[in-house]
Amino acid sequence: MSITVDLSLASGGDGIRAAELSTPVARFAIEEGLDNLLGVLRRHKLRATFATPAVMVKVYGQKLKDILAEGHEIAAEALRHEDVSGLSREEEKARLDRTTTILADAIGRPPAGWFMLSRQMDNFAGGTISPNTIDLLIEAGYRYYGNGQADDVPHWWVADFASRRALPAMPYYYHFDDQYFCMFPTKGTGLESPDMLLRNWRTEFEAQHGRGRHFHMTLHPQHMGWLHRLKMLEDFLDWMGGHAALWNPTAEACIAHWTSTYPAETHLDLEPSIWTDYPGSLS
């Protein structure tokens, strides 16, 4: 099973803005929520991958090295966790390179993975990338993309069919992401539905454990860091820990195992797409 902790405080496609770092929710996430989550992971001897926008390096500083020292992974989540889908290839590459440099300076080596997780004010769940993102990540030496939705296990994201150019992707599904069940939407009703989230976690884990496959959850310090929600998380982890034969790698370690077991040369079986473009189609 794998855990992603999203350190972004972005609410929309503009990414993290200065105003979003000074809200009460942001201060809680930075000053208390993250420490609370780290404490839970420590007590349960679990590793996580922390998706980190580059601008958060100035916010967290030494804390990122402390996270690494506990056996966790620091991965990239763009410069400000902004929507890159409308950027030119050149501008997106410049931001990607800057992100990589900032994080490499902060943690001592380039990050292995790149995430583009959902933001609460996005038009749809799943995160936003451009037609160039995966190809740019391959060129930059990234070893995986962090939130693919094409399978419930690690899989190959094909950037170019003809050349079989592909990047491994970790699975993600928003039904197991806390932000959609804890005060969502942020404007309007602000419904709290943690019981539904717990139900999703338990039923998905039980199904995947029975199949010998993969379970993944996404957590945010500003959402799961509150004590009443931490109690729910602790109860779930206690229950989960009672199951046999669990492996809890970081995303980087999981991808390393998966690519050595299922290399693209022998397991990437491509077939022509049945999709046909028509005038006015959205593809």
Account of the protein in words:
With 283 residues, the chain is an alpha/beta fold. It has 10 helices and 8 strands. The protein has helices spanning 24-43, 57-60, 62-69, 89-107, 133-140, 194-211, 221-224, 227-241, 251-261, 264-267, and strands spanning 2-6, 49-52, 73-76, 113-114, 144-148, 155-160, 165-171, 216-219. The strands form 2 sheets. A 4-stranded parallel beta sheet has the order 3-2-1-8, sandwiched between helices. Strand 6 and strand 7 (165-171) form a beta hairpin. Helix 6 (194-211) runs parallel beside helix 8 (227-241). The chain is globular. The mean pLDDT is 94.
In oligomeric terms, what are we looking at?
A: single chain
User: What's the overall geometry?
Assistant: globular
Distance between the termini: 33 Å
Major beta sheet summary: 4 strands, parallel
The number of E-state strands comes to 8
Report a brief summary of the structure.
Helices cover about 40% and strands about 15% of the residues. By secondary structure, the protein is α/β, with parallel strands linked by helices. β6 and β7 (about 165-170) form a beta hairpin.
Relevant terms:
283 residues; alpha/beta; four-stranded parallel beta sheet; four-stranded mixed beta sheet; globular
